[in-house]
Amino acid sequence: TRSINLAVIPGDGIGQEVVAQGLKVLSAVLPQDVKLETKEYDFGARRYHATGETLTDADLDALKRHDAILLGAIGDPSVPSGVLERGFLLKLRFAFDHHVNLRPSKLLPGVASPLAGQPEIDFVVVREGTEGPYTGNGGTIRKGTPHEVATEVSVNTAFGVERVVRDAFARAQARPRKKLALVHKNNVLTFAGHLWTDVFNKVAEEFPEVTTEYMHVDAATIYLVTQPERFDVIVTDNLFGDIITDLAAAVSGGIGVAASGNINPGREFPSMFEPVHGSAPDIAGQGKADPTATILSVALLLRHLGHNAEAERIETAVAADLGERGDAPRSTEQVGDALAARVAG
Ligand code: IPM
Ligand code: MN
């Protein structure tokens, strides 16, 4: 596209600060002839307190008209836990069928990792985004009694598993190492685990060049720390993916640089790009949040829309900037300015 009609959701806490820098870098990287239009939406804690709304049908209709969505972070201690998570973020992921939750991990030169020896880390997690234990399928009986029973059913459909597994194979096929690991827990979760394993093995036949392996999720947490270099692409269930991508972020530069895309590959609905970190109310308003994760999320957004050269320019700029960053703390704005200057120049 030669124009981008972007929905911008700064959200709560540091969301406002980091999104401003993401937009600054986006404007700087786009060539003159690509027209950028943005519309800001006020979702998050303030809107919830003012109106009781998190995300209405009318909001979804409005968002649907955009090419993509850039999100900062949603969440505030003044809102009970779960309200914005379910009422905004998960509602949007489900409504727009964001079944590929893409979370790359790359340890860039100059960035410290808690892992001794600074291994080569460059993998991407394809986390399923619309099924598993996230569907809200469950219930409680005998609530508040010593005999309370709570269920939280993990929903896995052949359709949902196959499309995300296929997406992960295609991504592995397109990378130099062509490796794909299925991460699950099929020794205990026998119903869902066997569905995932069967579908994975079936789709593998169509991708003979891709080297595959299966790993239990508990073992994966060990290898992500002891041998992260062995991973190329990982495909996994929604909840396992949530957990291992925080671990992945921690070993590859921290959540200050972890980007993500909530992708609807068929483009029936706009995809949404967001830093993996949250709204960090403890440091909000101080201008010290690292906008790099948001800026890298902008790169994912550009690649999704087919602006590959611009996406690469941002990633190259971030790598160069991190390599030269040193220990002196820089403000949110200074990092944004430095990256905007690099991508423009
Ligand atoms: C994430 C977050 C969300 C998730 C929460 C806030 C609902 O942890 O994007 O990883 O669990 O998916
Ligand atoms: Mn998470």
Automatic annotation (TrEMBL):
Molecular function GO labels: 3-isopropylmalate dehydrogenase activity
Annotated InterPro entries: ICDH/IPMDH, IsoCit/isopropylmalate_DH_CS, IsoPropMal-DH-like_dom, LeuB_actb
Cited Gene3D superfamilies: Isopropylmalate Dehydrogenase
Major place of residence: cytoplasm
Alphabetical keyword list: Amino-acid biosynthesis, Branched-chain amino acid biosynthesis, Cytoplasm, Leucine biosynthesis, Magnesium, Manganese, Metal-binding, NAD, Oxidoreductase
Annotated substrate binding sites: 93, 103, 127, 218
Pathway given in the UniProt record: Amino-acid biosynthesis; L-leucine biosynthesis; L-leucine from 3-methyl-2-oxobutanoate: step 3/4
Highest taxon above the source species: Bacteria
Domain Isopropylmalate dehydrogenase-like: start-end pairs: 5-339
Residues where NAD(+) binds: 278-290
Annotated EC: 1.1.1.85
Site (Important for catalysis): 134, 185
Compartments, record wording: Cytoplasm
Co-factor binding details: Binds 1 Mg(2+) or Mn(2+) ion per subunit.
Reaction it catalyzes: (2R,3S)-3-isopropylmalate + NAD(+) = 4-methyl-2-oxopentanoate + CO2 + NADH
Cofactor: Mn(2+); Mg(2+)
Enzyme category, top tier: oxidoreductase
Pfam families, alphabetized: Iso_dh
Residues annotated for Mg(2+) binding in this entry: 218, 242, 246
Subunit structure as annotated in this protein's UniProt entry: Homodimer.
Family that this chain belongs to: Belongs to the isocitrate and isopropylmalate dehydrogenases family. LeuB type 2 subfamily.
Xref: NCBIfam families: PRK03437.1
Chain's role: Catalyzes the oxidation of 3-carboxy-2-hydroxy-4-methylpentanoate (3-isopropylmalate) to 3-carboxy-4-methyl-2-oxopentanoate. The product decarboxylates to 4-methyl-2 oxopentanoate.
Name of the protein in question: 3-isopropylmalate dehydrogenase
Phylogenetic classification of the source organism: Bacteria, Bacillati, Actinomycetota, Actinomycetes, Kitasatosporales
